[in-house]
Amino acid sequence: MAQLSRDSSPGLRQLSSIGRARTGLPVPQALLYGALAVGTLDILDAFIFFGLRGARPIRILQSIAAGLLGREAFNGGGGTAALGLALHFFIAFIIVLVFVTASQRMPALTRQPVLVGLIYGIAVYLVMTFVVVPASAPPPGWTGKAWACHLGARASRGDLLLFLDADTVLAPDALQGLLELHDRHRGLVSVQPFHTVVRPYEQLSSYFNMVSLLAVGIPFVFFAGRALSRVIRSIKR
User: In whole angstroms, what is the distance from residue 220 CA to residue 95 CA?
Assistant: First the structure.
């Protein structure tokens, strides 16, 4: 039975409690060695393949960072190249983490490691090529979240789309209320959510809420309406 590592994150402790990785290594070591192997071999392949076509290593690393920063990554010198290298190994770690987690729950994946590895590698290539890379850097004029919503809407097949933030909790009758509003107005429905504050420091978010209200002009309408009502009352007197 594998021993829990005191320095492991909760996710790694949960994996370690299941047992050792099928390679015979504890899960944290399997993740570390796997991420280093995948990341190193993949970046060396990129350096050799694109280097033979005239691309410098720093340019290759900056192109990885461009997935997050856009074209500005190519003007950042060594800083954005280092960011690209860090992103590259982070992606490699996620790829290994997915496989190790799946193999813990489906031991059959490790019985034919070469075949399963080839199939998994092809799947990773397809996802990176046709999903991750096209969705990485938004075109000029787009922001990250809006671009992600656009890609999701373009790939969807439903008649109605509902976009939520990751921390949104729907009330029991929320969907029914949104459908009724949509049927009444026959168009886009935008809702300002209620922000439940759990911790004291979350009160700082009220600043951003005020910025949002100022952007849509609600305070102006409120104070202008109050001023106009006072003028009307004074005229009646």
Answer: 50
* Integer Cα distance of 216 and 190 in angstroms: 12
Is residue 215 very low, low, confident or very high in pLDDT (cuts 50, 70, 90)? Answer: low
Inter-CA distances, 151 with 108, 137, 138, 143, 158, Å? 35, 12, 10, 12, 14
Question: What is the C-alpha to C-alpha distance for residues 181 and 187, in angstroms, rounded to an integer?
Answer: 9
pLDDT tens digits, residue range 99-125?
Answer: 998 888 888 888 888 888 889 889 988
Domain boundaries, the chain: 10-139, 158-236
Query: Could you tell me the sign of the dihedral formed by the alpha carbons of 113, 117, 120, 122, in that order?
Result: negative
The CA-based angle 169-203-224, given to 5 degrees, is 95
For residue range 20-62, list pLDDT tens digits in order.
444 467 888 889 999 999 999 999 999 998 888 788 999 999 9
Crossing angle (nearest 10°) for helices 206-216 and 218-236: 60
